[in-house]
């Protein structure tokens, strides 16, 4: 495994571990998701460069567009939750209560 592959794999693993173990604030969960998506984007971009194919080069751009949509939807949920509940603690959010 090359050092670049190891660093992107480690970044994705750290993001997923942060998402799994440090779920106190909604903002930290969103940052972990964004870090995972960016590590996937860079890994797919380097993979397309290594394969030297033009047909595969659009895939990282689609992933980047979807991660931007995910980030904007997550920030909208963060603003709505902080206005409704007063904080972004995940323990204070109750999905059964309107």
TrEMBL record:
Originating organism: Diplophos sp. MM-1999
Record's function text: Core subunit of the mitochondrial membrane respiratory chain NADH dehydrogenase (Complex I) which catalyzes electron transfer from NADH through the respiratory chain, using ubiquinone as an electron acceptor. Part of the enzyme membrane arm which is embedded in the lipid bilayer and involved in proton translocation.
Segment forming the signal sequence: none
Localization of this protein: Mitochondrion inner membrane; Mitochondrion membrane
Keywords: Electron transport, Membrane, Mitochondrion, Mitochondrion inner membrane, NAD, Respiratory chain, Translocase, Transmembrane, Transmembrane helix, Transport, Ubiquinone
PANTHER family on file: NADH-UBIQUINONE OXIDOREDUCTASE CHAIN 4L, NADH-UBIQUINONE OXIDOREDUCTASE SUBUNIT ND4L
Coiled-coil spans in chain: none
Reaction catalysed by this enzyme: a ubiquinone + NADH + 5 H(+)(in) = a ubiquinol + NAD(+) + 4 H(+)(out)
Membrane-crossing segments per the record: 6-22, 29-49, 61-81
E.C. no: 7.1.1.2
An example Gene Ontology molecular-function term: oxidoreductase activity, acting on NAD(P)H
Name this polypeptide is given: NADH-ubiquinone oxidoreductase chain 4L
A GO cellular-component term linked to this record: respiratory chain complex
Family statement drawn from the similarity comment of this UniProt entry: Belongs to the complex I subunit 4L family.
Enzyme class: translocase
Membrane topology listed for this record: Multi-pass membrane protein
Pfam families registered for this protein in UniProt: Oxidored_q2
């Amino acid at each position: 495994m090359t050092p670049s592959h190891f660093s992107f794999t480690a970044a994705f693993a750290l993001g997923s571990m942060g998402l799994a173990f440090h779920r106190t604030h909604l903002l930290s969960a969103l940052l972990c998701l964004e870090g995972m998506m960016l590590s996937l984007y860079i890994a797919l971009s380097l993979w397309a460069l290594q394969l030297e194919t033009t047909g595969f080069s659009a895939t990282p751009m689609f992933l980047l567009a979807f991660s931007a949509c995910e980030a904007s939807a997550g920030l909208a949920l963060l603003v709505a939750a902080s206005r409704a509940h007063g904080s972004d603690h995940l323990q204070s959010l109750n999905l059964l209560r309107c």
